[in-house]
Structures are given as C-alpha cells and as structure tokens.
Amino acid sequence: MNAPVETPLLGRPLLEMRQVTQTYSLARPTLLGTRPSLTVLDHIDFDVRPGEAVGLVGESGSGKTTLTRILTGMEKPREGHVFYNGADIWDGDGERWRTFRRSVQVVMQNPRSSLDPRMRIGVSLLEPLRSLKIEGDHATRVFEVLDQVGLSRQALERYPHEFSGGQLQRIAIARALMPGPKVLIADEPVSALDVSIQAQVLNLLKDLVNNLGLSLVFIAHDLSVVAYTTSRVSVMSAGKIVEVGKPMDLFVRPQAEATRNLVGAILTVESGLAGNALA
Ligand SMILES: Nc1ncnc2c1ncn2[C@@H]1O[C@H](COP(=O)(O)OP(=O)(O)OP(=O)(O)O)[C@@H](O)[C@H]1O
Ligand SMILES: [Mg+2]
User: Fold this and answer.
1) In what order do the strands lie in the sheet with 240-245?
2) Running DSSP on this structure, what letter comes out for residue 3?
3) What is the pLDDT of residue 268?
4) Is residue 3 part of a domain?
5) What is the pLDDT of residue 273?
6) Which of 43, 60, 107, 208 is the most exposed place for a label (fewest CB within 10 A)?
7) pLDDT at position 272, please?
8) Is 237 a domain residue?
9) Residue 250: CB partners within 8 Å, gap ≥ 6?
10) H or E segment at 174?
11) Which CATH number is 113's domain given?
C-alpha cells in the first residue's frame, strides 16, 4: 500500500467557493400559480489548496454533484462566488476563463457514460486538447499521460467496450489529465466499480496528488473511502456543510448528526461482513 496523502504547507486556496447558494425552480407551478423553488446548496464555503487532497462526503441528494457542477464552472451559482487563484471565475475575460477550464478537470462516477463508445481511446484523449484549443506536441502528451495512469500505448487503438470498468476509469482520469490541470475533482469515482478494483483507482488518485502535486477534491457517500484518499473532509447534509475535520477526528468524535450517521453506516457494513464471515 502506498504512502498516505500528506498535506504539506499550503498557502492560500487555489480553488474556492464562498457563500454559494443554488436554487432550482421546480418545473410545475402550484395551483396558486407560484413556482416553488428548491434550495440545493445553502451558503456553502469550500476550498482546496495547492497540492492538497480534500474530501466531500454526504448522503444521497445532499448536493455533492451540484457543488461539483458549480466548482467546475458548468453552472453559475444563484448567489456567492467561485474563485480560481484568487480571481472570480464569472467576472473576468475569456483568457481567465480558458485558464480556469484547463486547470480544473473532473472525473465522474461512470466512465462508460463519460467516454464516447464510438471513439477510439486515442481520439477521446485528444478531444480535450482540441476543444480547449491547446497547442503543442499532442502525441508526446498522450504518451506521458498514459504512463502517469499506468496504461499501455495499445490502449489508444481500442474502443471503450474492450475495457473493464477499472481500466475505463483509468482512461477517464487520463482524459482529465490531458490539459495539464492543477485541480482534479472526482465525483464518486469508484462507486460504480467492483470492490476488488476500487483500491487500485484510489491508489492511482493518491499517486497523482503525491507525484504531480495536483490538488484533489474527492467526493463520495462513504467516509472510509474519503478518509483513505484525503486529509481534510467536509460533511454535507441537505445542502449545508455541517462539519469539517480530519478524517480520523470525524470517525472518533463525530459532532454533527449527519457525520454520526455516516460513521454508523460503515460500522454496520463491517459488522455485516464480519457476521457473514462467521456464518
Ligand atoms: N437541475 C436540477 N433541477 C432541480 N433539482 C435538481 C437539479 N439538480 C439537482 N437537483 C436536486 O438537488 C438535490 C441534490 O442533488 P445532487 O445530485 O447534487 O445530490 P448528490 O449529493 O450528488 O446525490 P448522490 O449522492 O445521489 O449523487 C436533489 O434533491 C436533486 O433532486
Ligand atoms: Mg452525486
């Protein structure tokens, strides 16, 4: 097993959201003709520093993916701000936006839906360079990234259906690395994978933080998975951050009810496994 992710000294946040609130209007008006809205994120503060791995954990529907969409600029928040390198991403020129888009990349839960099934892997890997208009020696960049994620060059000629889920998630991570990001945001990157290969993908993400100095935002339902990969964890419940702490402190002295529930879920699973082993 490789070394734990250490948090070196970190300086100011590289990517941060301050007091972000997101509401959605519900499609159907009420009988009175008003259109109710749903507050999905409620005055959220969240940040990651250079080279830091942070976690975000919370029950289903607590707002984690909405936070991801706002942190990556896919959605503009109704209130509040997102800063990259100290500058508001929604309040700058095209050059600032381009830098932000290259610098913050995301890995989603299901690699099969994030890769086009009709495209060879090599073409998929080049696609972010084309869409972000990044110039340079693209072939060299592809080989470099394949090495970083532990894939052979033969992968380039193949199609997604020829790979297992774990290999495909490696390819999705490679694709996210292509533009040379400073921050990787992984939204439930192992929850669609077989338990037996989850650890490989988690170790790869840790290695990328340690070897490339990337910042990582790791999002999951499961506190133990987040604890393995990160050094500071925010717990989310019903659109709010209810607790922030080091993983071990959250395990040993959970303060918020949502944190206690997440710790309880792990203990229940473990007792269940132990029970099965004894049966
Ligand atoms: N575009 C939208 N319009 C209306 N409601 C939305 C929209 N996107 C998300 N929601 C609602 O916001 C809430 C939070 O959703 P979100 O997907 O962010 O949660 P999550 O924590 O990622 O959940 P999961 O763990 O299941 O992935 C849910 O109630 C969801 O139905
Ligand atoms: Mg989600």
Assistant:
1) 104-107, 183-187, 215-220, 53-58, 232-237, 240-245
2) P
3) 66
4) no
5) 46
6) 60
7) 52
8) yes
9) 223, 227, 233, 235, 243, 259, 263
10) helix 165-177
11) 3.40.50.300
User: What is the total count of domains within the chain?
Assistant: 1
If you ran DSSP here, which 8-state letter would residue 155 be given? G
- Residue 135, CA distances (Å) to 128, 131, 138, 175, 231 in order: 11, 11, 8, 16, 35
pLDDT of residue 77: 97
Classify residue 5: in a domain, yes or no: no
Residue-number span of the structural domain to which 249 is assigned:
15-28+35-278
Most informative mutation of 42, 64, 221 for ligand 1 (most atoms within 8 A of CB):
64
Residue with tokens 């520093």: 49
Q: Which residue has the tokens 């082993």?
A: 277
Q: What is the mean pLDDT of each run of 10 residues along the chain (279 residues)?
A: 50 95 83 81 97 96 96 97 96 90 94 90 96 94 96 96 94 97 96 89 94 96 91 97 96 94 76 43
Sheet with 79-84, edge to edge strand ranges = 37-48, 15-25, 79-84, 87-88
- The rounded distance, in Å, linking the Cα atoms of 251 and 265 is 11
**Ligand 1: residues whose CB is within 6 Å?**
24, 38, 40, 58, 60-66, 221
Helix axes 195-212, 165-177, angle to 10 degrees: 20
**Angstrom distance (rounded) from CA 66 to CA 64:** 5
Pocket test for ligand 1, best of 66, 76, 110, 236 (most atoms within 8 A of CB): 66
Using a 10 angstrom Cβ sphere, with 0-12 exposed, 13-18 middle and 19 or more buried, the burial of residue 233 is buried
pLDDT at 278: 37
